[in-house]
Amino acid sequence: MGTRFVFLGPPGAGKGTQAALISQALGVPAIATGGIFRDAIARGTQIGKQIGQFVNSGMLVPDKLTNAIVAERLKQKDCKKGFILDGYPRSLTQAKALDTYLLKVRSPIDRVLYFKVEAPVVIERMGKRRVCSQCAATYNLVSQSPKTEGLCDKCGGALVTRSDDTPEAIRKRLTVYEQTTKPLLDDYGKKNILDVVNASASVEAVARQVQGLCLGTS
Predict the structure, then answer these.
(1) Can you tell me whether residue 33 is helix, strand or coil?
(2) To bridge 159 with a disulfide, which of 130, 155, 171, 205 should be the other Cys (CB 3.0-4.6 Å)?
(3) What is the CATH number of the domain that holds 52?
(4) Of these residues, 4, 15, 73, 125, which one is catalytic?
(5) 68: domain range?
(6) What number is the average pLDDT over the span 179-188?
(7) Which one from 4, 125, 129, 130 is the annotated catalytic residue?
């Protein structure tokens, strides 16, 4: 089986949870752009300062910066055995940049897993989502609840509901996500490396699907 994976899917699909499980099983890092953005900003690196300007203004980080920081992260020693990219690439432009970098280091993507989930399921899950007001860590009141109600396990910050987690906003985000990622999924499908996961199922059922695809277990 491979050790270099891309997990794609809209917010609420549960890909982050599954990425963490496969990361532990394979001994390779799960990498989400949000995490490496926050790390670069906290460390005050040159690229981190540039990203911080966009993040603090509520703007999307440009592809050029996103691609650069992902490539920088993939150069680290813990990625030599493999990696799981959680939510990246998000567009054909990003995918081409990733392919170009991986071709240089002779480490192509083994499989792409798309976590397909129905809108009502996402709306229900998002209704249970809480985010730390200080460090942005994410929790779910059912599947990943904090140790102390209302407080972040990592920093003790207050947990809040995101203002854009309304049913109408979620449906809009899903529509935009599907429109944006369709060309990307079509491209991966043509390369014959795309697998679709039924992410509307329970966490346990999704885990069995993902483990079968990534670890060869059932």
Answers:
(1) helix
(2) 130
(3) 3.40.50.300
(4) 15
(5) 4-215
(6) 93
(7) 129
Cα 10 to chain centroid distance, Å, stands at 9
Q: How far is CA 215 from CA 2, 4, 17, in A?
A: 8, 12, 16
pTM of the model: 0.84
Task: Find the catalytic residue in 4, 73, 130, 173.
Answer: 173
Q: Is 130 a catalytic residue?
A: no
Q: Are 86 and 169 in contact (CB under 8 A)?
A: no
Six-digit token pair at 62? 């440009």
* Count, residues in the chain: 218
Average pLDDT of the chain is: 91
In single-letter form, the type of residue at position 6 comes to V
Q: Which helix (H) or strand (E) holds 56?
A: helix 46-56
Overall domain count for the chain: 1
CA distances from 140 to 54, 116, 151, 161 (A): 27, 19, 12, 11
Tell me whether residue 43 is one of the annotated catalytic residues: no
